Every structure is written in C-alpha cells, then in structure tokens.
TrEMBL record:
Residues 222-668 form the Peptidase M3A/M3B catalytic domain. The keyword Zinc applies. InterPro entries: MetalloPept_cat_dom_sf, Neurolysin/TOP_dom2, Neurolysin/TOP_N, Pept_M3A_M3B, Pept_M3A_M3B_dom. It comes from Agaricus bisporus var. burnettii (strain JB137-S8 / ATCC MYA-4627 / FGSC 10392) (White button mushroom). Belongs to the peptidase M3 family. It comes from the Eukaryota. This is Peptidase M3A/M3B catalytic domain-containing protein. GO terms for biological process: peptide metabolic process; proteolysis. Cleaves proteins, imported into the mitochondrion, to their mature size. While most mitochondrial precursor proteins are processed to the mature form in one step by mitochondrial processing peptidase (MPP), the sequential cleavage by MIP of an octapeptide after initial processing by MPP is a required step for a subgroup of nuclear-encoded precursor proteins destined for the matrix or the inner membrane.
Length: 678
C-alpha cells in the first residue's frame, strides 16, 4: 500500500540570490506582524491577539530562514554557503532588534495582565500558560525593563556578539588545513587509513597530506608510533583555527558587558537562569564535586599509562623525560586497551561496515519506537544525502505521518566537520487545527571506502551515530501545540540526556551482535570480542572525564572571570592541571572550541550533568530489556512527546516514577555510591 504524506518535503533548489531575497521578505513580514501587535490598544491585548499571533509569526519566520541558513553547513557551492551565512547574519541581527522591542513587550505584559484579571488565565492549558510565561521572561532577560540608553547599548553589543559567533562558525566550517608526513613518520597508522591520504611528491620524496577531519587525524593520535609525529599532528590540530582566537576573546568580552548591563553577576548566571542547574555557582559545585572524585582515579590511570610509555621509549630508543603529554593520551589509552583486554580497535572496525551499521541502527530505532522509515525521491543539497518519510509503524493513511528525515553521512570539502542534528522544521498545531510536521537532518562524517576496504566505522563512530539518531527522533516524535516547545527545545543541560541514554544500546551484547557483520566473513562479532568491547567502556574513565571537566571548567571560568586574560595560556595550563596531560607549545586550542560560540557558552557542563539523568533513565527503565517496544512507547510518551512544553524535571519524574538521582551514574563510574552533590 502506498502512503502519501499530507505535507510535501522541502525543496533544496535555491540559487544564492534567492537566499537573501527570501530571508529579507520573511523578516519584513515578521516585522509587519510585530508592528500590528505593538499597535493594539492595551484592552484588546488577549492570548490570541498577542501570544498566539507572535508564536505563529516566529514559527513562520523560522520555517523560511532555518533551511536557508542550513546551506552554509552542507552545500558544495561556496556561493551558496556564503549567501547562507550572510542570510543567517541578517536573521540574527533582526532577532536582536526584535527581542528589544519595548512596544511588543508592553503588549505582552498587557495581555498577561488582562488574562489574570479576567479569569481567562485558569482556562489556558499548561502549555499555553508556559508560552505566556516564557514570552514575558524573554523580554525581561532581553533588558526591556531597562532605560532607553541601556537598551540601545545592548542592541549594539548583541549584534556584534552575533556576528562574532557567526564568523567563528564560518571559519570552523571552512577550515581546510593539512599536516604533512612521510610514510616513515606515519609508522603504526593502519594501511587502509594511509591509503585515504592525499599522496604527492615533495623534494623528490613521497609525502602524505593529512587533513584535520576526524577520520584522517584521529588515527594518527591513536596509532602513530613516533611521538614527534603525534606531537606535530596534535599541535597542528590545536592550532588549525588560530584565526578564531581574537573572535573568541571578543565574544567573551561582549558577554561580560551584556550580562553586566542586564544586572547579572556573570554571563554564567545569566545563561543558567533558564537551565535545570539554575545558577553559575551550581555549575561550580557540580564540576568541583566530580573532579574531586575523579582526580585520584585519573592519577592512578596516568601512572599506568606513563609506565607503558617509559617501557616503549626504552625499547624503541625514543628519549623519555618522565612526562605524559596531550599527544600521548589517545595513543597509550588505545595500547592499554589492546594489551589488557587484547582488544584491537582496527579489528573491531572490520565488523562495522557503514552499509550494515546504518540500516541496522535505523531498524533498531524503528522497532523500539514503533515507526518506519520509507526512502523517498526528492531534491537535496547533495547527491550523497538519503531522504526518508517517517510514519507510524501501522500507518494506513496520512494520519500516521510523522515527518521527514535527511541523513548526510559522508565527509566532503567545506562541509560541517563533526556530527550533529539540525531540527530544520519543528512540528506544531496550525491555526486550522491541522498539524505541521517536523523535518530533521543529521550531518556526520563517517569514513568513506578506501581502495582496499569498504567504508568501516570504529566502535566510537557507531556510538556517535546512535547518539545523533536519538536527537533525530527527539525532533520527529515530539508533539507540542507550539513550535517553540517542539523536540529538542528543552533546557540545554537536559537536551543531551535522551541521546546519552541511548548510547547504552551500543554496549549491549545482543545489540552489538545484531549490528555487526565482518566486511569479508559476513559474521557478527564473536561473544568474546563483544565481552572485551563492553569491558573497555570504563577503562581509563578517570582520564576521559577529567578531559570533559577541563572543557567544562574552561567554559565556566571564561564566563565568570570579571576581566579578560590570556585565554591561550589558560587553555593549556587548565588542561594540564585538570586533565593531567602536559604540553610543550601553548597552542591556541580555544579557537577550535566551537561549542563556546555555538550555543553551549557557560553550558558545556551540561554534557556531564545530563549524563546523571541518562544513567538513571537507562538503569531504571530500559536495562532489563533495552529493545522492548513497551519501554520505547513509555519513552516516547513521557520524554519525547512533551519536548519543552513542561518542566524537564516533570518529564523525568513521569518517566522514572520518582525524582531523578545520581546513584546509577556514580555506580557506572566507581562501582559504588559515594556521597555526592551531583
């Protein structure tokens, strides 16, 4: 039976000149609507005439501009990417202007007051009340209660901050540097990886250009025997975006000024007001508590890896100065796993061909969440992209339609270089009562085939793919009345929890067996190999999380300091202090820290904070039978469906049957439940 979606997929056939024109038209239409709301007599300000009108206008603006802004991350055309980046700058500038409209804010306040006085407030649904509260809070957080001089200054600072962050992001996407080595210098790096490097002749000698994309550079960190090779690769990788250093300096200074004008002690206090953690001090307490628990574990692990380094350097004749460097960490972490567990990362990779893993993971999700993906023919931004219509499992007509999904999985020049999901269109109820359906896109950089082997995934890549698919389904299976609350529009320190919970599937024996198939032998992973993979999960867990804490503490410190400092020196010294790894050259690694300008400012702690919830959710509900569709249905109902339409803590309580706690997380890491502030 052929199913016809009630909504057509997006068309990706824009020319560069279309992008600016369509963006400006959308902005003009939104401005006109805001003018209309602002002109209302206060007594005519109602829920429908103010809050509903503004909510739909914002949704309409986003529906036009979000897909146009997405091109900068994926389009093979530089002209289109540049136009997309410029269009996003227009939208961001307009967003600043729009957020600072006192006349619109006054209409919102009048509408809220009218609702309360008339008794209509109690007749609103909880989601409608939340819309009112959040829209009013937008105004107070934007500084609309301040005097005009302060507001004018705020607009100026916010526009500059927006442009600075956009420039940082553009440099990040456009980065195309390489580091060059001879074959001898690449000793230890697997042949199938080396065969993917660009080979050329320089001064009569064969050399290999290694890009800084993950599938190219990470194998050097893990496998290159020569410490000088790893050092040069690491320092090049850390320095690849030195161009971003002044931009980050400026962004931090602008945030410091903005939070001061708004009356917050620090930018971290401003940011956390709308997070689960609620305050900058809450971040500090959480990170300090976890660091105190992890440091002794990390110190012990470091001593073990340092002893391995000493032994290898003596055997191979490399000088040994008694130090453990940043470029030693991934190499000896990998060797430790190989030696103690007899687990070879490259052997494991042979069991995860992309052609098997991707469809299997899609099938696992479809079975667990009772949905089905149907591949469709429609326009896209690149021929590599897979396109799907997503339906309820038993759909018989258009009422079972869920939305659209795009998978753009392989690396190419000038494409976004990591893995992420874009919620391109949200779902919401239209004014006629019908549904507008969501569209999500996952962008990743899985390995491409080499002359000798098909495209293969490391187990880490499998975990990442499973994680990102979690965001895809959060974007597809949420069902809120207003687009503002759809899908991943939840507190930033909760947004990763559902996907982090789903990573656990990649460590479950029956799931590993199901999604593995050796590229030649066509056999799944053997039980002993599965056991080794599972045991490797918490090997060197102290050093792993101390590295995460370094990122979080750097982010916290730069957003709580009252004065600027040498952020390159801070990057290197703080990493040495927390992550327990030395450096020689103080490389400007903060220029590569895209999270800090991409929405995770004063928010990187959230990756670890949300793991507390992820561990609790998995241990409490899914652990007994991770693939049971009954658990999947409960997860859909209580976590995915509400999106941000209710407090995240309420969703967690409904899912768990009790308030969340940190017992499962601490047990995973330490095997017991030490007293904790987590």
């Amino acid at each position: 039976m052929s199913l016809t979606p009630p909504q057509s997929p997006l068309q990706w056939d824009h020319a560069a000149q279309d992008i600016s024109r369509l963006t400006q038209q959308a902005i003009d239409a939104d401005r006109a609507l805001q003018d209309k709301v602002a002109a209302l007599d206060p007594k005519n300000c109602t829920f429908e005439s103010v809050f509903v009108e503004l909510a739909f206008a914002e949704t309409k603006l986003d529906a036009i501009t979000e897909p146009l802004a997405f091109y900068q991350n994926v389009s093979p055309s530089k002209e289109l990417r540049d136009a997309s980046n410029e269009a996003e700058a227009l939208v961001r500038d307009y967003g600043v202007e729009s957020s600072m409209r006192v006349d619109v804010y006054k209409a919102k306040v009048a509408a809220r007051d009218n609702l309360k006085k008339s008794g209509q407030w109690d007749k609103l649904s909880s989601e409608e009340q939340r819309l009112v509260d959040k829209m009013i809070l937008d105004g107070t957080r934007a500084g609309l209660a301040l005097d005009e001089t302060s507001r004018v200054k705020l607009v100026e600072l916010k526009k500059e901050l927006s442009k600075t962050c956009l420039d940082f992001s553009k440099n990040f996407n456009e980065e195309n540097g390489v580091v060059t080595f001879t074959l001898e210098e690449l000793k230890g790096v697997p042949d199938d990886v080396v065969s993917g490097f660009t080979k050329r002749t320089e001064n009569g000698k064969d050399v290999y250009d290694v890009t800084y994309k993950t599938p190219d550079i990470f194998p050097l960190f893990k496998f290159a025997e020569n410490p000088n090779t790893r050092q040069r690769a690491q320092e090049g990788y850390e320095s690849r975006l030195a161009i971003n250093v002044p931009l980050l300096d400026r962004a931090i200074e602008l945030r410091r000024q903005i939070s001061g004008i708004l009356g917050y002690d620090t930018w971290a206090d401003y940011i956390t007001e709308v997070k689960m953690i609620k305050s900058g001090n809450g971040i500090k307490d959480f990170l300090d508590d976890l660091e105190n628990k992890l440091r002794p574990v990390g110190m012990k692990e470091r001593e073990t890896l340092l002893a391995m380094k000493k032994k290898e350097h003596e055997q191979k004749g490399y000088p040994f100065d008694g130090e453990f460097y940043i470029w030693d960490y991934r190499y000896y972490d990998r060797k430790y796993i190989e030696e103690t567990l007899d687990l070879d990362d490259m052997l494991v990779k042979e069991y995860f061909p992309v052609s098997v893993v991707v469809p299997t993971i899609l099938q696992i999700y479809q079975d667990m969440l009772s949905v089905k993906f149907i591949e469709i023919e429609t326009s896209t931004w690149h021929p590599d992209v897979q396109k799907f219509a997503v339906w309820e499992k038993g759909a018989k007509d258009e009422s079972g339609f869920i939305g659209y999904c795009y998978l753009d999985l392989f690396p190419r020049t000038a494409k976004y270089s990591h893995a992420a999901v874009w919620p391109i269109l949200p779902g919401y109820d239209k004014s006629d009562g019908k549904r507008s359906y969501p569209t999500t896109a996952m962008v990743a950089n899985l390995a491409k085939p080499t002359p000798d082997k098909p495209a293969l995934m490391r187990h880490d890549d499998v975990v990442t793919f499973f994680h990102e698919m979690g965001h895809v389904f959060h974007g597809l299976l949420s069902q809120t009345k207003f687009a503002r609350f759809h899908g991943t529009s939840v507190a930033r320190d909760f947004v990763e929890a559902p996907s982090q919970m789903l990573e656990n599937w990649c460590w479950e024996p029956k799931v590993l067996e199901r999604m593995s198939s050796h590229y030649e032998k066509k056999e799944p992973l053997a039980k002993d190999l599965i056991e080794k993979i599972i045991k490797s999960r918490y090997v060197n867990v102290g050093l792993f999380y101390l590295r995460q804490l370094f990122f979080a503490k750097y982010d916290y410190k730069v957003h709580t300091d009252k004065e600027s400092s040498d952020y390159t020196r801070l990057w290197n010294d703080l990493r040495e202090k927390i992550s327990l790894v030395k450096y020689k050259v103080a490389a400007p690694g903060q220029g590569t820290f895209g999270h800090i300008t991409g929405g995770y400012d004063a928010g990187y702690y959230g990756y670890t904070y949300s793991l507390v919830f992820a561990s609790d959710m998995y241990a409490t509900v899914f652990k007994g039978d991770p693939l049971d569709p009954k658990h999947g249905s409960h997860y859909r109902q209580e976590i995915l469906l509400p999106g941000g339409s209710r407090e995240e803590l309420d969703s967690l309580k409904a899912f768990l049957g009790r308030p969340p706690n940190s017992d499962a997380f601490l047990k995973e890491l330490f095997g017991d439940n030490p007293t904790s502030n987590l």
